[in-house]
Amino acid sequence: MTQRLRWILLAFMIAGAVGAVLLFSTFKHPCGGLLRMYAVAYDRAKGCTADADCIVDPFPTLGPGLCDRTRARSSSHDEMERVERAWAEASCPAPGEPCPAVAGVRCARGRCESALR
């Protein structure tokens, strides 16, 4: 192996190690993980076939500050409530900025979407 290839290999190894440290450091704070779980829970609950299938949940007082809270009427809210309880138990901060006003919800391409004002 030439000297140049060794340096390139070393640079990639260092970049990979730095990337791994940065990635795993985001998992130290429980609120970041809970916010990701909350977003995934809502994303799973968006399947719809008509506009009447979609609803928007009220903004939780102690839960994560996720603005897109649309979901299918038939989907369960249990997973979201579990994350909201964990959010309160972990003493995570209340949502900061207010979300834009939602004019309604619609079913587009088989997924519930918010219609903003």
Note down, in words, how this protein is organized.
With 117 residues, this protein is α+β, with helices and mostly antiparallel strands. It is built from 3 helices and 4 strands, in the order ααββαββ. The strands form 2 sheets. It has a two-stranded antiparallel ribbon. Helix 2 (30-44) packs antiparallel against helix 3. The chain is elongated. The N and C termini lie far apart (62 Å). The mean pLDDT is 84.
Brief summary of the model shown:
The protein has 117 residues and is of the alpha+beta class. It contains three helices and four strands.
List the keywords.
single chain; 117 residues; alpha+beta; two-stranded antiparallel ribbon; 43% helix; elongated
Number of strands: 4
Tell me about the biggest sheet?
A: 2 strands, antiparallel
Estimate the mean pLDDT confidence.
84
Poorly predicted sequence stretches spanning 5 or more consecutive residues: none
Q: Helix count? A: 3
Q: What structural class is derived from the secondary structure elements?
A: alpha+beta
Shape: elongated
Following the backbone from N to C, one meets helices and strands in this order, namely: HHEEHEE
Strand order of the largest sheet: 1-2
Whole-Å distance between the termini? 62 Å
Name the helicity range.
Answer: 40-55%
What does the secondary structure layout of this molecule look like, with pairings?
Elements: H1 3-25, H2 30-44, E1 54-56, E2 70-72, H3 78-89, E3 102-108, E4 111-116
Antiparallel strand pairs: 1-2, 3-4
